[in-house]
């Protein structure tokens, strides 16, 4: 098998994959027309099959992730890529009957008699899901849960950066689901471009804002509704009373997940200036005492490609060249091109024009910005694009709530980081440059449903008064309305 970098950077001949994509979409459209509103029992069966598919492929998922990343912690695969979406499927199945139920709406009996109004969630149809490389199973199978719960058909396009995971996902899905229900298409850049030109009933893309912008333009040409999960620079604001071992443990622990290759990782910290050194000391102590040998262990995920590893090292080189205080939290030695593991490095109080402060880091660099007053930290966050997530660390609940009120982000945590993304009950998504739309939970079910407004006529109504020719009945309705409002 070619390396992930070679595979990702080569378009190749995608003609066969593109032809297969169109066949898959037509097959699913035909299937949807045959069964446009799956029953509760059918949807329960699909969600159960999905959870079982993940649980029964544990070792294969672990091996595929290790193949693509060079090193990938088996327990991280268990907790995040398998148990996470499997638990999410169980939660959706438990809630599904209430999600599917028609929602009654008001209809004035004086005008509509015994008529009824309600919103009926209706499947949208055939949905496309473009999956990023950092969570090949969680971000493919995870959204699939709400898509299937809502009664849709789904086509998944895995990332070309994770060929082993893509091949396994296709094998798993085709062994579990009928291809007119769920399918996976595998290919390179040509297939990715063709995927965005399909007239989907809804399209989900998870990745960078730059590519998200292009996908939104392509979707707009066909009036395809899109959900965009785009990431961004997620800050952690630490107040003066929270510069302690527990807060730093939460920050470093989150940064070490996938070794920073996570859209809701802590991208940078804001700490009181007089406590900058204390934060750095606590971070070094935590890594030395609780994570010895981390960056060369099987708990440290490798960078997805040599190019990505070089990008991280280039960011650090620029910071050093500008005279910044760069502190690796352990000595990793020379980079092994087979494992591509890098240590977590702090960059203390870097200037805002550095690449690591302008771009989403997406790796093991933690810039730590100093502030003099909390208002300054809040202003710094608000001056940038709205992040996918924001984290506040404070022992004072009222102070944390004040920070949340004065900032805007897709999600947030207090005295923790990224946990909101693991909860099946909470909506997940961004705002502005960090994305639009939601999946997870009932909001995900609604995202992939058409909220169909329905009126059922009853008896003793006055609706005929609205139709020409207008006469006494229409006059009576108008007179009564104006008299009531006077």
Structural write-up:
The protein has about 475 residues and is α/β, with parallel strands linked by helices. Helix content is about 45%, strand content about 15%. It contains 18 helices and 16 strands. The chain has a seven-stranded mixed beta sheet, sandwiched between helices. It has a six-stranded mixed beta sheet with strand order 5-4-3-6-7-15, with helices on both faces. Helix 3 runs antiparallel to helix 5. It is globular, with a radius of gyration of 26 Å. The relative contact order is 0.14. The model is unreliable at about 1-10 (pLDDT under 50).
Quick structural overview:
This protein is of the alpha/beta class. It has helices at 4-9, 15-34, 40-56, 58-69, 74-100, 109-112, 138-149, 163-176, 189-197, 209-221, 245-256, 276-290, 306-321, 355-358, 374-383, 397-405, 441-447, 472-485; strands spanning 103-105, 116-123, 126-130, 153-157, 182-184, 202-206, 226-229, 235-238, 268-272, 325-328, 345-348, 365-371, 389-393, 411-414, 435-436, 449-456.
């Amino acid at each position: 098998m070619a390396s992930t970098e070679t595979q990702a950077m080569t378009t190749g001949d995608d003609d066969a994959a593109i032809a297969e994509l169109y066949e898959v979409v037509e097959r699913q459209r035909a299937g949807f027309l045959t069964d446009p509103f799956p029953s509760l029992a059918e949807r329960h069966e699909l969600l159960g099959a999905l959870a079982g598919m993940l649980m029964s492929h544990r070792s294969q998922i672990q091996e595929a992730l290790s193949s693509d990343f060079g090193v990938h912690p088996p327990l991280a695969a268990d907790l995040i890529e398998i148990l996470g979406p499997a638990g999410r499927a169980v939660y959706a199945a438990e809630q599904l009957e209430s999600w599917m139920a028609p929602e009654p709406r008001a209809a004035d009996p004086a005008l509509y008699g015994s008529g009824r109004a309600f919103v009926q969630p209706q499947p949208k149809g055939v949905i496309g899901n473009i999956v990023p490389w950092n969570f090949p199973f969680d971000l493919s199978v995870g959204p699939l849960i709400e898509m299937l719960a809502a009664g849709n058909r789904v086509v998944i396009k895995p990332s070309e950066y994770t060929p082993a995971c893509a091949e396994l996902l296709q094998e798993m899905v085709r062994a579990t689901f009928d291809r007119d229900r769920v399918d996976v298409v595998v290919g390179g850049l040509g297939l990715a471009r063709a995927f965005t030109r399909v007239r989907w009933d809804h399209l989900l893309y998870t990745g960078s804002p730059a590519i998200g912008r292009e996908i939104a333009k392509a979707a707009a040409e066909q009036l395809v509704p899109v959900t965009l999960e785009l990431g961004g620079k997620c800050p952690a604001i630490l107040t003066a009373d929270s510069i302690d071992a527990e807060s730093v443990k939460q920050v470093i622990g989150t940064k070490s997940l996938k070794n920073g290759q996570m859209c809701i990782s802590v991208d940078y910290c804001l700490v009181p200036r007089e406590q900058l050194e204390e934060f750095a000391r606590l971070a070094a102590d935590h890594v030395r005492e609780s994570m010895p040998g981390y960056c060369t262990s099987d708990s440290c995920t490798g960078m997805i490609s040599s190019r990505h590893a070089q990008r991280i090292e280039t960011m650090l080189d620029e910071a050093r060249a500008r005279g910044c205080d760069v502190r690796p939290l352990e000595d990793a030695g020379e980079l092994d091109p087979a494992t591509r593991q890098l240590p977590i490095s702090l960059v203390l109080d870097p200037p805002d024009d550095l690449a690591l402060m302008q771009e989403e880091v997406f790796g093991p660099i933690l810039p730590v910005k100093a502030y003099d007053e909390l208002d300054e930290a809040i202003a710094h966050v608000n001056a940038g694009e709205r992040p996918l997530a924001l984290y506040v660390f404070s022992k004072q609940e009222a102070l944390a709530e004040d920070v949340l009120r004065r900032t805007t982000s897709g999600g947030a945590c207090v005295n923790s980081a990224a946990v909101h993304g693991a909860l099946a009950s909470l909506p997940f998504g961004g705002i502005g440059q960090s994305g639009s739309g939601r999946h997870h939970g009932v909001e995900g079910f609604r995202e992939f449903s058409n909220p169909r407004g329905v009126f059922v006529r009853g008896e003793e109504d006055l609706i005929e008064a609205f139709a020409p020719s207008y006469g006494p009945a229409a006059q009576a309705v108008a007179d009564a309305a104006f008299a009531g409002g006077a």
